[in-house]
Design a protein that fits this description.
single chain; 695 residues; alpha+beta; 5-stranded mixed β-sheet; 15 helices; 22% helix; elongated; binds adenosine-5'-triphosphate; Kinase-like_dom_sf; transferase; protein serine/threonine kinase activity; Prot_kinase_dom; EC 2.7.11.1
Length: 695
């Protein structure tokens, strides 16, 4: 198991942000819960209540009911629809990292001389740089053994010595995790070679090839500018380095200007590009099976550097090849334009605001004033799927027109890229990549145009009566609910749009009793606790933009439905994933969810009838994630959305339904007509919410 480093954030002397170092991600279930560095931005917590009900009988599962709501959107007058049993016949189926270094209060002084793992003896000279974990110094060889007097290689007169203190979080389990990665990647195209490593006193020391300035240094020393040709050459060569790294099964995980170094000045390698700092590298390909690693999302886990991280990394998705390329795209635009649109955010929710801005910035806006190839590159990489193989050769060829035709006089050595283009050309039986004829046109995301919509989810059920009401004002709620109850229907979901309610009532809930309350609070604790005392549990809730809420609490039938054994809810200013994660470990599952304005309300219950649960959270409808989860047996069981984000909870039911069909719809108006079409196919609304869907 890889050890990963972790620590707390601190500012660097370098004005650029350093990576955030998260604590270990908890293991939720057997599948691929790898150690991660996580960011800890605890949301403002307001409620965390538990109802401990004594022994309600548990039988079969009750469908979990949910609702969500948001403001905005054009809505018309109140509507109602009903599917009766006789409608369609009855035969149908239904950071910054903290290094052990001098300024951080780690008292251990660096040794004056270093000799580790059979290396020559080195005298420590000037400092080359410092990151969140390590500090890097020049080591000058003073022993005379094994020397041929030349620079470079294991016998070099000057080497780079990377020190990590043994108490640094990255060394919790022994030597730094980065060492393992260097074992595989050290010395491949664009990665410096590590010659010796070992522990000396309080420090783990890695002896590596000495390199020159970073791209950030070059940009900084050149009045915060860099020529288009230089950046295009960097693009070309960096893509080829990433291709090589990826071909070895790794993603770098922290691509940024500070981690690209040039060779030492005055040497034949001074124009050669290297990528360093492999402390966040992870495998995208499983070593033994050769398969792509499993897709996961842990919305409170962040790895990398906020400014350059991919949107997927912000959202806690498993790192894959696309993330390095997206970070490279931001690196290039930064070097070219001197600034990225999401710089300058501060405060506890900086990560959220930066990610939101990244999602809201179209490639056109990001690359305004940049030559066309940069925009095309951004467009390609932000549209890559989780396990999609990037077309590296094609990306490289985008920059052909921006760099000079003679590779020998380019500001950056592009040998690696030329080799790659040549190899791919050979493989394909042609020399260059003009095409791609075989590429399907893709639906573009991140158009910089946010939209809010209804998200409705439909499950296959045996024919039953279901009824919906939408655009319901507060005062009309009671009469609809009473009428429904008279007809033998209970509320299964609620939602809100523009301070009006949507109400789904049906005959298939399995409830035996139900109460509800419309309250000006999100949520009304006293009332909920009173009902908990009477063994009612929250079965659906919705919040309006004005802060009011509609909470529905129900009792289940023991012979037909599961009665929750315990329930807990939380209201918070950001999506409370940390809390959800904690509750998962205590045996709770999300059973209802809603939003009021930008606040989230999440209800979790024990004995919920699920064997596993995941969350998909995004700044748009997370289509790719949902399809992946569907393929692995999850079904959406709760939805909610704010104006910024949509969250979908997907669960594996303990009892598999006879028909697992589930469909979703996104519509700008309440899907009144669509619902009828779904009913005709015995698909019934299982969840509905209104909020952010596309951008
Ligand atoms: N081989 C090298 N030759 C010259 N300078 C180097 C070398 N390796 C690292 N440096 C310098 O030291 C700095 C810190 O190194 P590195 O990024 O590996 O440390 P880190 O603590 O893992 O950093 P981070 O906080 O980015 O994770 C680099 O930005 C670079 O300036």
């Amino acid at each position: 198991m890889p050890e990963l480093r972790s620590g707390t954030r601190r500012d660097r002397t370098n004005p650029n942000p350093a990576p955030v170092a998260p604590p270990e991600r908890p293991r939720r279930r057997a599948a691929a819960a790898r150690n991660r560095r996580t960011a800890a931005s605890a949301p403002a917590e307001e409620e965390d209540l538990i109802a401990n009900a004594g022994g309600e009988a548990a039988g079969e599962e009750v469908r979990i009911l949910e609702g969500g709501g948001e403001i905005g959107g054009g809505v018309d007058e109140e509507g109602i629809g009903e599917r009766r049993m006789d409608d369609y016949g009855s035969g149908g189926k239904s950071a910054d990292k903290l290094a052990g270094g001098e300024e951080e209060g780690c008292a251990a002084p660096l040794p004056e001389k270093v000799q580790v793992g059979g290396s020559p003896l080195y005298k420590i000279e000037r400092k080359l740089g410092k990151g969140g974990f390590g500090q890097v110094y020049v080591g000058r060889r003073i022993s005379t053994t094994n020397t041929n007097g030349r620079m470079g290689g294991a016998n070099a007169v000057e080497v780079a010595l990377k020190f990590e203190h043994r108490t640094s979080k990255g060394c919790n389990y022994g030597p730094p995790y980065e060492w393992q990665v260097y074992n595989t990647l050290g010395g491949i195209h664009g990665v410096p070679r590590v010659h010796f490593k070992g522990r000396q006193g309080e420090y783990y020391v890695m002896v590596m090839d000495m390199l020159g300035p970073s791209l950030w240094d070059v940009w900084n020393n050149n009045a915060h500018t860099m020529s288009t040709e230089m950046v295009a050459c960097i693009a070309i060569e960096a893509i080829s380095i990433l291709e090589k790294m990826h071909s070895k099964g790794y993603v770098h995980g922290d691509v940024k200007p500070e981690n690209f170094l040039l060779g030492p000045p005055g040497t034949p390698e001074e124009k050669k590009l290297f990528l360093v700092d492999l402390g966040l590298a992870t495998r995208w390909k499983d070593t033994s099976s050769g398969q792509h690693v499993e897709y996961e999302q842990w919305p409170d886990v962040f790895r990398g550097t906020v400014r350059y991280a991919s949107v997927h990394a912000h959202l806690g998705r498993t790192g894959s090849r696309r993330d390095d390329l997206e970070s490279l795209a931001y690196t290039l635009i930064f070097l070219l334009r001197g600034r990225l649109p999401w710089q300058g955010y501060q405060g506890g929710n900086k990560g959220f605001l930066v990610c939101k801005k990244k999602m809201a910035t179209s490639p056109e806006t990001l690359c305004y004033f940049c030559p066309q190839p940069f925009k095309q590159f951004v467009e390609y990489v932000v549209n890559l799927k989780f396990d999609e193989e990037p077309n590296y050769a094609r990306y490289i060829s985008l920059f052909d027109g921006v760099v000079g035709p003679n590779p020998d006089i380019r500001p950056i050595n592009t040998d690696g890229a030329q080799k790659l283009i040549y190899q791919v050309g050979q493989k394909r039986g042609r020399l260059m990549m003009e095409e791609d004829d075989d590429e399907q046109p893709k639906k573009k995301i991140r158009m910089g145009m946010p939209a809010t919509q209804w998200i409705s989810v439909y499950n296959a059920r045996r024919p039953m009566k279901q009824r919906y009401h939408y655009n319901v004002a507060d005062i009309r709620l009671a009469q609809h609910i009473e009428k429904g109850n008279e007809d033998g229907l209970y509320i299964s979901c609620v939602a809100s749009c523009a301070n009006l309610w949507a109400l789904i009532m049906d005959a298939g809930t399995g409830f035996i009793a139900q109460v509800y309350e419309l309250s000006p609070h999100f949520l009304h604790k006293e009332w909920i606790m009173e009902q908990w005392e009477k063994n009612y549990y929250i079965s659906a809730l919705a919040g309006a933009n004005n802060g009011s809420s509609l909470v529905v609490m129900s009792k289940g039938i023991s012979s037909k439905g599961t009665q929750f054994a315990q329930q807990s809810y939380k209201v918070s200013d950001s999506f409370p994933f940390k809390w959800i994660n904690k509750k998962w470990r205590e045996g709770f599952y999300v059973t209802a969810m809603a939003t009021a304005g930008s606040r989230w309300g999440v209800v979790m219950s024990r004995n919920a009838g699920f064997s596993d649960q995941v969350v998909e959270l995004d700044f748009l409808y997370p289509s790719e994630g949902i399809h992946r989860r569907w393929d692995s047996g999850y079904r959406i069981t709760a939805t909610a959305a704010t104006l910024d984000q949509a969250a979908l909870v997907l669960s594996v039911p303990r009892r598999k339904p006879a028909d697992e069909t589930q469909e979703t719809l996104r519509t700008s108006a309440f899907p009144s007509q669509h619902v009828k079409e779904k009913w005709a196919k015995n698909l019934y609304i299982a969840s509905v919410c209104y909020g952010r869907t596309v951008s």
